């Protein structure tokens, strides 16, 4: 999160290479940081649209979205060389922790939580998977926060909105 914030600060100051490097490091740290790539691309495209292709600084804005995926590409390459697949961390999560990524994950979590609540004798920690409860509470909070963001939208930079929507999808 600190790297994403630093990248956003560099974008605000039009330090394109710094923004791209910080975004690239953030994507190496965690896969959820990939949401910064479209956010930076939107800022770069907007800069090109406003200033035009002939402006040298506008062309330099392309550095940021080109550097942003460097971290995830480097991590995937590292995994590929050492394990034979760039998706080794996802495979490990799937088989060791039984985690998976699906567009209907929230629905599945809600179904599991309802099942846990319906089949236990008392509400206690061993009977309820708190990960499911935390996921549902997090989704409720996210929905509420998105409504608040929509209300103050003109004051929020476009890259922050794109990044928030990317995190929401993930």
Short structural description:
This protein is mainly alpha-helical. 72% of the residues lie in helices and 0% in strands.
Content of β-strand: under 5%
Tell me the total number of β-strands.
Answer: 0
User: Which blocks of ≥5 consecutive residues have pLDDT under 50?
Assistant: none
The termini sit apart by 15 Å
Q: How many whole angstroms does the radius of gyration measure?
A: 20 Å
What pattern of helices and strands is seen along the backbone? HHHHHHHHHH
Mean pLDDT: 85
Biggest sheet layout: none
Classify the helix fraction into a percent range: over 70%
Descriptive account of the structure:
This protein is mainly alpha-helical and about 170 residues long. About 70% of the residues lie in helices and about 0% in strands. The protein contains ten helices and no strands. It has helices at about 1-10, 15-30, 35-50, 55-60, 65, 70-85, 90-95, 105-120, 130-150, 160-170. Helix 2 packs parallel to helix 6. The longest helix is centred in the C-terminal third of the chain and has 22 residues, at about 130-150. It is flat.
Comma- or semicolon-separated keywords:
single chain, 170 residues, mainly alpha, 10 helices, 72% helix
Write the layout of secondary structure elements.
Layout: H1 2-12, H2 16-29, H3 36-51, H4 56-60, H5 63-67, H6 70-83, H7 88-96, H8 105-118, H9 130-151, H10 158-169
